[in-house]
Amino acid sequence: MRFLSCAQKRSYPEFFPMPEKNNVTIVPIRPVDHRHQGLIDDGVLSRLDYDLAAGAARLKNLDIEDVLIDEFQVKPAALGKSLAAFFGVPYEPFDPNRPPPPPGLRLPRAYVEEHEWLAIEETQEGLVILATDPERVRTSRVVNNVFPKHKPVFRVTTRREFRKTVDQFYGDGVGSISDLLSSLDEEGMEETGAAADEVELSADNELVKLVNKIIIDAYNMGASDIHIEP
């Protein structure tokens, strides 16, 4: 294992314990996630700080992107630029004024959260697909199966901004019963084959959430007997 020595100590004991000997800090050098190499190349943060962030993410069981943003003040735009350079697609920042996609392009929320991609709009270029890992989505060809009549155009975003976009389109949390019913009704996609099975499984998850919501609401209203029938 290679090591990095630095005469000046920058103390982050709660993030990454660093052994000391003769007033020299020894920090193990771990491979940089290639998606984040641009942060170092552009001087957004040092290699030492990246190692500290990676250690903090492991110790706290957090996403390293959240640690970089919250603890090391890395701007989402800088992170997005690094992701764009790695994946070779444009970075798409969170837009609080973006309208939700039409019903025919809406996937079940459970599916979107699990696979981290969704369609956000149709343009002259094609159907814009927002993803945290566009290469994985592209090579799986799931977009072509779910939307066979559309040409996919990929955009990358940070995980935090992706979660914010999901909340923007679907609402925070579980939502009301009407919201859940709407989610089930709006699955007018052109799914085929394995993609249909994959999306149907996520629709089943939405149905389970709907039933749970009905039970909870009935209990809160003081219902003594709750019957769920097909």
Quick overview:
The chain is an alpha+beta fold. It contains ten helices and six strands. The longest helix is centred in the C-terminal third of the chain and has 28 residues.
Sum up the structure in keywords:
230 residues, alpha+beta, 2 domains, 3-stranded antiparallel beta sheet, 3-stranded mixed beta sheet, 10 helices, 12% strand, globular, disordered N terminus
Structural account:
This is Type II secretion system protein GspE N-terminal domain-containing protein. Residues 87-173 form the Type II secretion system protein GspE N-terminal domain. By secondary structure, the protein is an alpha+beta fold. It has two domains: 3-86, no CATH class; 103-220, no CATH class. 46% of the residues lie in helices and 12% in strands. The chain contains ten helices and six strands. The protein has helices spanning 37-41, 47-60, 64-70, 76-87, 109-115, 134-140, 142-146, 159-170, 177-185, 193-220; strands at 3-6, 20-21, 24-28, 117-122, 127-131, 152-156. The strands form two sheets. A three-stranded antiparallel β-sheet has the order 1-3-2, with no helix packed on it. Strands 4-5-6 form a three-stranded mixed β-sheet. β4 (117-122) and β5 (127-131) form a beta hairpin. α2 (47-60) packs across α3 (64-70) and α9 (177-185) runs antiparallel to α10. The longest helix is centred in the last third of the chain and has 28 residues, at 193-220. The chain is globular. The protein starts with a strand and ends in a 10-residue tail after the last helix. Residues 1-15 have low confidence and may be disordered.
